[in-house]
Description:
Layout: H1 2-19, H2 22-31, H3 34-43, H4 46-53, H5 59-68, H6 71-78, H7 83-91, H8 95-102, H9 107-116, H10 119-129, H11 136-139, E1 146-148, H12 153-162, E2 172-176, E3 182-187, H13 188-193, H14 200-203, E4 211-212, H15 217-227, E5 231-235, E6 241-246, H16 247-265, H17 278-305, H18 307-312, H19 315-318, H20 320-343, H21 352-381, H22 388-419, H23 430-452
Parallel strand pairs: 1-2, 4-5
Antiparallel strand pairs: 2-3, 5-6
Helix pairs in contact: 1-3, 3-5, 5-7, 7-9, 8-10, 15-16, 16-20, 17-23, 20-22, 20-23, 21-22, 22-23
Amino acid sequence: MRNEQILILTVSIKRLLRRGATKQLINIINKTHMADLSIVFDELSTLNRQNLFQLIKDPEQIGILFSKLDEPIFLEFVKNIEIEKLVVIFNHMPSDDAAELLGLLDEELSDQILAKMQKEESDNVEQLMSYGEDTAGSIMVTDFIALEEDVTAKQVIESLQNQYLDVEMPFYIYVVDSYGKLVGVSSLRQLVVVHPEKPLKEFMATDLVSAKTYTDREEVARLVSRYDYLAVPVVDDENRMVGIVTVDDVIDILHEAATEDMLKMAGVGDEYVETQTVIKGTRIRLPWLFASCLGGVAAFFIIGGFEDSLVKFAGLAAFIPVIMGMGGNIGTQSSTIVVRGIAMGRINLQDFSRVVTKELAVGCILGVTYGTLIGVVAKFAYTNEPFSWALALAVGLAILVSMSVAALVGSAVPLIFERFHIDPAVATGPFVTTSIDIVSVYCYFMIAKVLLDI
């Protein structure tokens, strides 16, 4: 339903732009969330994008739009906006979004914008930009509510009404000691149900989950997902609170991580295809496809080594695709399950034996099931031949071995990569399927050679 609404919105805006219906367009802009409008921008020509953009006057709304646009479109807009207007826009953006977008610009333009921004805003943004790109510090929000433990519930509410009106996401009240060190947290719900004169230290939660400024942002996302928090506090090495990572950023992180893993597992890099040049896309895919090419050549030589067997029993060739296909499929399935488990923090190196054993058992059970099924097909396909039972057994055993080995390799390789600090997502795709194809073909012909006496 949402996609239909976006489609209708896109068609309507295109029609109004052709007619030059400025008043109607402004009315649509005022009623449409910038996240939806950013999707429309993807579908417009460069000229129409500029015309529609000129109608958005609120710098805060423009900031939201910029944070939702794809990188190439954002950079396209920045080139055509006066620096004074850019400064106003970035002054109205949350510090974490501003830091992320300024990081996309060339250093000279970024420095010019920072130099002209309000000092407090530019200081916050520069602080975030000083952290590593994939760390909690780079995505945290520096506006949060932190009060000392002796403050009463009534005083907290008064502070919220007077002092913290501009806080972007007041999910929690963080409690600090006199040195600014994090000692507790209270939800807004706890705050309104306790006696007004009760101090924070008497009802705050002390079983804190926090992240360091240098903690990997995907690890922070896993914390939010695991404990169902709306925000995670970020502290320095002395446990002084410096910011929070909010759930909206976590959703973006998980989406990006899942997308990157899928692209890596397919062997096409970690960027969207629309952001890659032809040369870059070719360069990224070339080594992975070369691995598949080598695997195919290896399989060719293996099959060629059994040419006499194929001449004598031509029926052997008919089952090569299904044996390689079944092994490749279950190998990819096992790899995907393990890579996702690693990414979500549900599987670690200590689980190696348990995970591999479980996947191997699944592979064996599926191998027996499909080995029996395909073996029956082989038997009936060659039922009038004297070697039909031997062929059926060879095919069934080959599928059992292929699927078992595939499950073993598919589950073990990502964990081995993780052990050596190599992104486990790259262990799937062409790497796993190619190695399994070679093993499957070799085992098939070796089993057939023994059973068919060839």
